[in-house]
Amino acid sequence: MIGWRPGFLLLAATGALVAVLSVVVVSDGTPAMSSPATGDASPTLLRRLRESLAEPGTRLAFWTHFVTPFSSNTFGVLWGFPFLVAGEGLQASGAQAVLVTTVVVGVVAGPVMGVASVRFAAHRMHLVLGLVACQFVAWAVVLAVGDAPTWMLFAVAIAIGIGGPASIVAFDFVREHNPAYRLSTATGIVNAGGFTASVMVILPIGLTLNLTSGPGGAYDLSSFRIAMCWQIPFWALGALMVVREHRRTRARTDAGDRLSEVTVRSLPR
């Protein structure tokens, strides 16, 4: 083990290296495509950002990616191990088993979520909200019980482990509602959702633990039961925005379908 600080510094350096290599080496290999709105071969980044954000389907995808994976990220990246060991009293090996479960569940659930997103395309929003509800219920029970049995902690691991794969539904939304020339920009906006939410949850959990920890700054279960509740407002916000933007996306899609139908009927026969 190299410790937290060297580990995160190594992770950051790896991310920077990958970014540089992507800019220098990676090419999509496709010619520039024209924007139907402007005719430009390469619309400015600012214009693509504005158009992407104005599209309700992009915002629906962003909030879908925002609400689904943050609990798993928060648990796996930082607060899961301390919660399980200092809070719930598991041995290190038991805590590691719970954390590994989230990864295994994610690997198994990924292909299943992909198939479900295609096969039940009309019910993607319900799928997303149902999985978010499972995360909320699992956490609510564990935090309400306090000294939870081990099987209940594994249930939380399973519920949040599906959250990562559930976020891929966002990319189906963004592909359906953006033209090809701005797809990369819209995808970049959407991909920031889950990581933004994760950072926004990780920080107040840490601040709350600092304020409520016991003598000497030691974490305990009562502190974690308060701190982990920070996930609730983010689930509520994300779910609310998913419903809101889904309605707006459907309204725009229905309006487009009606316009297409009128255009077809007006064509000379």
Walkthrough of the structure:
With 269 residues, the chain is mainly α. It has a single domain (46-251), classed as MFS general substrate transporter like domains (Growth Hormone, Chain: A, Up-down Bundle). The chain has helices at residues 4-25, 45-54, 56-67, 70-87, 92-119, 124-145, 150-161, 163-166, 169-176, 183-212, 221-227, 231-266. The protein starts with a helix and ends with a helix. Residues 37-41 have low confidence and may be disordered.
Roughly how many Å is the radius of gyration? 22 Å
Instruction: Count the DSSP helices.
Output: 12
Low-confidence stretches: 37-41
Mean pLDDT score: 85
Instruction: State the helicity in percent bands.
Output: over 70%
Strand content: under 5%
Q: What is the name of the CATH superfamily?
A: MFS general substrate transporter like domains
Largest sheet: none
What overall form do the CA principal axes indicate? globular
SSE string: HHHHHHHHHHHH
Number of strands: 0
Question: Would you identify the CATH architecture?
Answer: Up-down Bundle
Question: SSE layout and pairings?
Answer:
Blueprint: H1 4-25, H2 45-54, H3 56-67, H4 70-87, H5 92-119, H6 124-145, H7 150-161, H8 163-166, H9 169-176, H10 183-212, H11 221-227, H12 231-266
Brief digest:
Helices cover 78% and strands 0% of the residues. It has twelve helices and no strands. 33% of the residues are buried.
List keywords for this structure.
Growth Hormone, Chain: A, mainly alpha, single chain, globular, 269 residues
